[in-house]
Amino acid sequence: MYEKLERYEVNFIPGKGYEVQGQWKDDIHDIRTRIVFDYLTYKVREAEAEVVSAPFDICQEGVKAIKELVGVNVGGGYMKTIREKIMSQSGCMHVGELAEYSVTAALNCAAREIPDSLDAEEYNQRWAFWQHAYKDCCIYFSQENALDKFQNDIQKVFQGKIEGA
To answer: Which of 15, 96, 104, 157 is deepest in the core (most CB within 10 A)?
Structure first.
């Protein structure tokens, strides 16, 4: 039997953006990442990784490739950058996986917590960008007028969670 844990914790840091702490753990690996995404510019502000346990000593070197993400725009080409710079001969596949899904975790947090520093129009512009990015890979965002529906729909989702708690 094989079991793997993949975990993400996201915190909003005022003036910086969303900090995503990721963990990839199985019976021989325990790798952790920390990536800070600037919500206003869609750039990676900080990126680091740590090996708690790994099967080979050289894995300590491979996780350092995550530094290549600092300054990279999250959007078109981000996944390609991860594959070329992190999931490479000098990098680590597991760190790359964490970097890929850290973006999704940050966006999920952003949908739940609108920073006070963003006005409604700016918030909607940000979601319009992501709606376009997800249009061809998500049934919800592929709907016509999904962005218009999003505000109401997401409030209903969280209202139901609050009422059911």
So the answer is: 96
Q: Tokens standing for 165?
A: 């708690």
- CB of 17 closer than 8 Å to CB of 36: yes
pLDDT the model gives residue 24: 96
This prediction's pTM: 0.81
- Measured CA to CA, the distance from residue 2 to residue 73 in angstroms comes to 35
Residue 29 or 111, more confident: 29
- pLDDT recorded at residue 40: 76
- The region, left, alpha or beta by phi > 0 then psi within -120 to 50, assigned to residue 25 is beta
H helix intervals, 7-145 = 59-62, 78-85, 93-112, 120-134
Distance from the first to the final alpha carbon of the chain:
35
Alpha carbon 137 to chain centroid, angstroms: 16
Q: How many whole angstroms separate alpha carbon 78 and alpha carbon 113?
A: 24
| Token pair of 133 as six digits | 């990015």
pLDDT value, residue 54: 95
> How many Cα atoms sit within 13 Å of 72 on the Cβ side?
24
Cα-to-chain-centroid distance, residue 136:
19
